[in-house]
């Protein structure tokens, strides 16, 4: 199983994108699609148009967009802590996405905090 993902500007590190692709996901980054520096609403609209779940670290802004318009293909959020030892590694992110997939959760219209899925 694999997901169609759009990776937000704040999460498009080459190492993470490579791991996601190696795990079998169909991954596009905002840089690849020419959407760098676009508004969060425009990025979510692009993900919606391409029927992709959005991967981001911008929990606050995308939670607000989700609450106002939950008609999307899923928002996958990586929350970060000021305690760097508590932050997810790229491998943790890929594992969490795999765990979400394995659960058979229908991600359409869902706001999923990946931190809770990494174990």
Summarize model confidence as the mean pLDDT: 93
Q: Give the count of structural domains.
A: 1
Q: Please tell me what the overall shape is.
A: globular
Q: How many separate helices?
A: 4
Report the portion of residues in β strands: 15-25%
Structural class: alpha/beta
Low-pLDDT ranges = none
Q: What's the total count of β strands?
A: 5
Main β sheet profile: 5 strands, parallel
Alpha-carbon Rg, integer: 13 Å
> Could you give the order of the helices and strands?
EHEHEHEHE
Share of helix among residues? 25-40%
Question: Could you give the order of strands across the largest sheet?
Answer: 2-1-3-4-5
Distance between the termini: 19 Å
Q: Topology, please?
A:
Elements: E1 4-7, H1 14-22, E2 26-29, H2 40-49, E3 53-56, H3 59-68, E4 75-77, H4 90-102, E5 111-113
Parallel strand pairs: 1-2, 1-3, 3-4, 4-5
């Amino acid at each position: 199983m694999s997901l169609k993902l759009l990776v937000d500007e704040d999460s498009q590190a080459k190492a993470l994108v490579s791991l996601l692709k190696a795990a079998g996901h169909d991954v596009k980054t905002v840089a690849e699609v020419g959407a760098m520096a676009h508004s969060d609403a425009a990025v979510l609209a692009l993900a919606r148009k391409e029927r992709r779940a959005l991967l981001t670290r911008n929990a606050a802004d995308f939670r607000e967009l989700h609450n106002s318009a939950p008609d999307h293909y899923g928002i996958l959020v990586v929350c970060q802590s000021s305690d760097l030892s508590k932050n997810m590694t790229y491998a943790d992110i890929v594992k969490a996405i795999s765990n979400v997939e394995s659960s058979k959760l229908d991600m359409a219209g869902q706001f999923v905090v990946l931190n809770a899925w990494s174990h």
